[in-house]
């Protein structure tokens, strides 16, 4: 069996003083199951894998994180969030598709948070699989309440809405458009198609350069005219060449075409 290539993963790419990272899959501490060895492969969206990628990024280099993920493991996502926060580099997070659940929480670790047009975010209360007797199930519910309180603090650190409002949105499992996320303070910018406007300083500089060129050309023409004037005998001026009349020029063109037709 050939090697399985994972197409959707955290993928570091180096650019000029910038490292691009991609989370384009569910966040999980388990990779795909290898039936030849009966073991799970290393997950490329786990906190451990993310930690290793971050460790290779030198200090001072810009980090650009792109997200298109439905979320996944809360513990792995929270660890990734904190790994990002602890990295001193400047970080820009961009939602390319969806940032649902814990994927949206990871975005909050970036210094600048952006969502592209047409993207969505999802905030909701976490859930867990559990089994046991009545007392154990009640404890699981209490534990979930505590975990959700801790989870909300990440969003509230930069949100512009109250904890009560955020709790209600999470309870309803709310999808957020970029504009809504911006309104709630959960992102910093909606990425739209922006026409680059010229810098006024650059425009003034170009106009100044053009004016200097025009002045130089005018001065050159004046020098040539003065030289020609000096070469002429005193009292004699150079006659202005007669410009061909438009009608005669067109007539000559037609005559030439007619002659060519006869010769052929």
Task: Provide an overview of this structure.
With 264 residues, the protein is an alpha/beta fold. Helices cover 44% and strands 17% of the residues. It has 8 helices and 10 strands. The strands form 2 sheets. Strands 1, 2, 5, 6, 7, 8, 9 and 10 form an 8-stranded mixed β-sheet that branches. It has a two-stranded antiparallel ribbon with strand order 3-4. Helix 1 packs parallel to helix 2 (74-86). The longest helix has 32 residues, at 200-231. The protein is elongated, with a radius of gyration of 35 Å.
Write the layout of secondary structure elements.
Elements: E1 13-15, E2 18-23, E3 33-34, E4 39-40, H1 47-55, E5 62-69, H2 74-86, E6 91-100, H3 102-107, E7 112-116, E8 120-123, H4 134-156, H5 163-171, E9 174-176, H6 178-183, E10 189-191, H7 200-231, H8 246-263
Parallel strand pairs: 2-5, 5-6, 6-7, 6-8, 7-10
Antiparallel strand pairs: 1-2, 3-4, 8-9
Mean pLDDT across the residues is: 81
Order of helices and strands: EEEEHEHEHEEHHEHEHH
**Mind summarizing the main beta sheet?**
8 strands, mixed
Judging from the principal axes of the Cα atoms, what is the shape? Answer: elongated
Number of strands: 10
From the N-terminal CA to the C-terminal CA, the straight-line distance is 77 Å
List low-pLDDT spans: 1-8
Strand content: 15-25%
